[in-house]
Amino acid sequence: MAVYAIGDLQGCYDELMRLLDRIHFDPDKDRLWFAGDIVNRGPKSLKALRFVKALGKRATVVLGNHDLHLLALSQGNARHQDRDHSLAPILRANDRDELLHWLRNRPLMHHSRKRGFSLIHAGLPPQWDTRTALARAREVERVLRGDGFPDFCHRMYGNEPDIWSDKLKGMGRLRFITNCFTRMRYCDQRGRLALKEKGPPGSQPRGIMPWYDIPGRASRNDRILFGHWSTLGCLHTGNVWALDSGCLWGGKLTAVKLEKHKPPKVIQIPCPGARSPNGPAKPKPITLPISR
Fold this sequence. Notes:
By secondary structure, the protein is of the alpha/beta class. The protein has one domain (3-270): Metallo-dependent phosphatases (Purple Acid Phosphatase, chain A, domain 2, 4-Layer Sandwich), CATH 3.60.21.10. It is 27% helix and 16% strand. Strands 3-2-1-11-12 form a five-stranded mixed sheet. The chain has a five-stranded mixed sheet with strand order 4-5-8-10-9, with no helix packed on it. The radius of gyration is 18 Å and the shape is globular.
């Protein structure tokens, strides 16, 4: 059995099909790990979501920020509604409630002792080791799967608090955890998040570093796979592997083959690009049904 971890899809279904052909994916034997952002901005978010969901136990999926945007939009929070409404087909689909229920039951972090890897979408603050990170992820997952889901969707956006404390409570605690797992790229040595910084390393202000470069971070000995950072591209440094190589923007779609005692093998396909960085000029209002 082969296990492959795949970077951000963002609705690029056709590219995923080409990548699976390239790795000779056998659904009877192989397993796929997805680093989040299955949907949004790309041309076939509904088809991509349906396909990944249909894989069942053959797929492990962690939530990304665009997946959470879809869930928030389903609850009427259009604060970050996409300009070209690429999520609208999902929210109008006959099976929308089934798809959304499946999505909100995905984890924020996956850890495999057998493979010796952890999978997240974005990053970890320097104070968290793998065990702590898994515990923090479960806090948000319980809310996503429970009665507090609608309220969470309306209050999850924001950049505060920007530093971890065990004393954090309520929505501030949940928001910080969510921002780490789904939005984080840079922070300072104390772990203060710099969520407005999105460029490649070298573009950030002095004193701000990629989360994986923080000296002495508690997760430094753990092998971590993550996506989210298209301007970083496919990267291996230390014990981390970045998988988002910008498929949506005309880069590549990346898969890495995971083996316990070997370095991951990188497989990539070129992508034509479904979206330009500037996108449509002006968002248009759209009315969609709200899940209950």
